[in-house]
Design a protein that fits this description.
Layout (H helix, E strand, L loop, with lengths): L1 H26 L4 E6 L4 E4 L1 H7 L3 H4 L4 H6 L7 H8 L3 E6 L5 E10 L5 E10 L24 E3 L2 H13 L6 E4 L6 H11 L6 E5 L5 H9 E2 L12 E2 L1 H4 L4 E5 L6 H13 L1 E2 L8 E2 L3 E6 L3 H7 L4 H7 L2 E4 L10 H16 L4 E2 L1 H9 L5 H15 L4 E2 L1 H7 L15 H19 L3 H8 L3 H10 L5 H14 L4
Parallel strand pairs: 7-14, 7-15, 8-11, 11-14, 16-17
Antiparallel strand pairs: 1-2, 1-5, 3-4, 3-6, 4-5, 9-10, 12-13
Helix pairs in contact: 6-7, 13-15, 17-18, 18-19
GO biological process, one term: regulation of DNA-templated transcription
Protein name: HTH-type transcriptional regulatory protein TyrR
InterPro entries: AAA+_ATPase, AAA_lid_NorR, Homeodomain-like_sf, HTH_TyrR, P-loop_NTPase, PAS, PAS-like_dom_sf, PAS_fold
Length: 473
């Protein structure tokens, strides 16, 4: 009996030691830790989270995440997304104290497959401005726009992980991706997560007329051209001192300005238009494009030396059609935003969400956001159906049946057949047609056979193309 009590006491002592050690580890982690139960009730936050959020444990423990969002403590919640998705989710959000945080929520399941805990790792992305207000040209600084972003896919998880690594160094970064994938969001994330003391300045190189772009980037001296301000004006590189300059649509910079841009990046100094004085700069450069810069280098429309100078840390953001796991979380996020904005209570049917997952989002996240807003504003009833979506996306012009009797699968099948027929008609090979459709050649051939489509002429051209590509023996 005595031995049993001693063993039990030993086990209790050991368990207490383990708990104490675990507490010490959690409290001394450099990341913020926020733990909820399987219903989203706050169980624990560590000291690091208190410091980075500006909130006290007493304000949070015991409260449900949905209530905390409603009460304005958080603009979004990774835990809420985890409960909806039954899987890990990452969210960038704002705390009521104005702090900007990035949280990755990971579910812990019980033996029955139910979520029993959600563990959130949290990073501080709070932007710190130390530039004097009189130094900044407010008309030319980009509007400070704090947006949340949400994702669930492993592909975007890898993008954010690389972005956070890149934020710790001052190397030049080149963000690649189709229009609408969120290149500007990742650029802002890198700046916010960095130790840059200055501001974040974005310039769209395609939106500024060519004759003004040089003076916008590098500034100008008094009297350098007609209409120039008497005292001259600093350029974007000067205004981004100790901060970040984001050169969006970098491929649109004319070739004659690329040499000057290269010199500024290389020498870390700028000469204003009409001036001779060399001004030292300390600015992080992030560039982005939806164009193929390597192809442009081969054609001579983009300088090779500038390309390699910018492409120190490349970050490629995959299109939305390659990360379909993000579509429904994004729809949920946008729906909440526009319901609040327009004081509505709209929602989507399950079949409509399935339709969205299958749709080829050529415009990526930007197109998805626009479509969700349009549907919420235009559709009269509170529940939005796939027929509403088909009408908004003008599928009728593609001969897709959208009557009440039509099934979603039939509508999708008809649209797919129509698009394949058009691609086969307009392109010389299945390889080219598949590329246009955004699918593999083998997938296209399989669908052609599935739908019993005629492609004898194009198959003949495939055979000729294959024959020409074979090496002579």
């Amino acid at each position: 009996m005595k031995n049993s009590i001693e063993k039990l006491n030993f086990k209790l002592h050991k368990a207490n030691q383990d708990i104490e050690m675990l507490n010490d580890i959690i409290e001394n982690l450099s990341d913020g830790i926020y733990i909820t139960d399987g219903e989203g009730n706050t169980l624990r936050v560590n000291s690091t989270y208190e410091k980075m959020s500006g909130l006290k444990k007493e304000e949070l423990i015991g409260k449900n995440m949905k209530d905390l969002v409603k009460e304005g403590y958080f603009s979004e919640s990774a835990s809420i997304q985890v409960l909806k998705l039954k899987a890990a989710a990452t969210v960038m959000y704002t705390v009521k104290t104005g702090k900007r945080l990035l949280a990755k929520g990971v579910p812990v399941f019980d033996e029955k497959g139910n979520i029993k805990l959600i563990v959130n790792n949290v990073w501080d992305l709070t932007e710190i401005y130390h530039l004097e207000s009189q130094t900044l040209d407010k008309e030319r600084i980009t509007e400070k726009k704090e947006e949340d972003f949400i994702f669930h896919s492993k592909a975007m998880d890898q993008v954010v992980e690389l972005a956070l690594k890149a934020s710790k160094v001052t190397s030049n970064i080149l963000i690649l991706g189709e229009s609408g994938v969120g290149k500007d969001v990742i650029a802002k994330l890198i700046h916010d997560a960095s130790s840059c003391k200055g501001g974040y300045i974005k310039i769209n190189c395609a939106a500024i007329p060519e004759h003004l772009l040089e003076s916008e980037l590098f500034g100008y001296e008094e009297g350098s051209f007609t209409g120039a301000k008497k005292q001259g004006k600093p350029g974007m590189f000067e205004l981004a001192e100790k901060g970040t300059i984001f050169l969006d649509e970098i491929a649109e910079i004319p070739i004659h300005l690329q040499a000057k841009l290269l010199r500024v990046i290389q020498e870390k100094e700028v000469i204003r238009v009409g001036g001779t004085k060399q001004i030292s700069i300390d600015t992080r450069v992030i560039a982005a494009t939806n164009r193929n810069l390597e192809e442009m280098v081969r054609k001579g429309s983009f300088r090779e030396d500038l390309y390699y100078r910018l492409n120190v840390v490349p970050i490629k953001i995959p299109p939305l059609r390659h990360r379909k796991e993000d579509i429904i979380p994004l729809i949920d996020y946008f729906t909440n935003i526009f319901n609040k904005k327009y004081h509505l209570q709209k929602s989507f049917t399950k079949s409509t969400l399935e339709f969205f997952e299958k749709y080829h989002w050529k415009g990526n996240v930007r197109e998805l956001q626009n479509i969700v807003e349009r549907l919420i504003v235009v559709v009269d009833q509170e529940v939005i159906t796939e027929e509403d979506v088909a009408e908004i996306l003008n599928f009728k012009s593609k001969k897709v049946v959208t009557t009440d009797a039509a099934k979603l699968k039939d509508a999708v099948k008809q649209l797919e057949i129509q698009l394949i027929k058009e691609a086969l008609k307009n392109y010389k090979s299945t390889r080219a047609a598949a590329k246009k459709l955004g699918i593999d050649q083998s997938t296209l051939v399989r669908k052609i056979k599935k739908y019993s489509l005629s492609y004898d002429a194009i198959k003949h051209r495939d055979d000729e193309e294959m024959h020409r590509s074979k090496p002579e023996l």
